[in-house]
Amino acid sequence: MKILYLTSRLPYPPVGGDRLRTHAFLKFLSKKHEIDLLSIYDSDSELQYISQLAAFCGDIHLFKRNKFISYVNLFRSFADHNPFQVNYYDSSSVRKFIKKIYRKYDCILVHLIRMAQYVVGLPVKKIIDMTDCLSELWYEQSKFSSFPMSQLYKLEARYIKRYEDFISSRFDYLLYVTSDEFSSKHSSQNVVSVGNGFNMDDLNGYSLGNKDGIGFVGKLDTFPNKDAVNYFIKNIFPEVRREIPDMKFYIIGKNPSPEWSAVDNCVVTGEVAHVGEYLSKCYVFVCPLRCGAGFKNKIVEAMLHKVPVVASSISIKGMGFIPREHIILEDNPLLFAKQVINLLKNEGFRLKIADKAYNFTKSNFSWEQELQKVDKILCSIT
After folding, report:
1. Alpha carbon distances (Å) from 114 to 164, 202, 269
2. Which of 10, 13, 258, 334 is most deeply buried (CB count within 10 A of its CB)?
3. For residue 225, what are the domain limits?
4. Is the pLDDT of residue 212 over 90?
């Protein structure tokens, strides 16, 4: 089958939730299908990755996003009521190009609603990887934001909800990471849960030495991750350090807030090539998210590095973990700190949780297993 794959970011390097997923889709599906890639990119520095992508793609069509036009387009949402992110990624060049080439494809695979606009009216088989229920994510973010951002987030949630409903009947299949993401939103037979997975070969063999800290991983300029780090630093980490003064907090990921470097015992790594290098230094991984939708790659990645996890209840929605067997759950900040301290002081319990979580994740989160579902869909619509 000849497929056109649309992504709003270049699917390389495979770090961060969206690039991990798009790269895995591309790599797996290219084994049986002929795939051309169309991506929007931000910086010319990203062009260095074309050779890596060429191993899986036929033609690669790249369009550089005009930042000025993107910001101007945001204001259109107040008039047309499309989501801000849809207008932000709108490009007349991309639209014209796709209209010229779409007829030569058996199917168009779209990643995220922001790229749906380019194919929604075209007479061709279409699959959209919704990934998460974004309307819920933006609504939850509004609860933890101050005015005026809280109102903008609520507005975006309404716009996205309407757009999700609009496109749901205009694609042959909709993909979500977990069944919880769509169970209450859609009843259609064209909705399929396609979870995330991991390649074990990419996770092993990294170490920076002895353990001396607690870790958190994420793209740190997104609201849920930034809020989680701020919340941990303010409400949880001081309690941990009262018991264990020398304990460090590793904040791992790109685009961290500058003020975190000034906090005692916080180690801000910035973007790293291999997250496992820093996870190897952590006794415990924390995920105190207060909002956010979908599958949390960070939790599974920590577990696959045999680092036990303490998380808020919202962090594992739809992931199948059993509390106190695979993970420790706590929403109260003082009790969260106590759970972290308990793991730090109780090596036997820490290793027991880590081993059970490792075995569960290794058995249940496989790209091969999940992406077979997509291949089955593709075969069914030819």
Report:
1. 10, 29, 30
2. 10
3. 200-364
4. yes
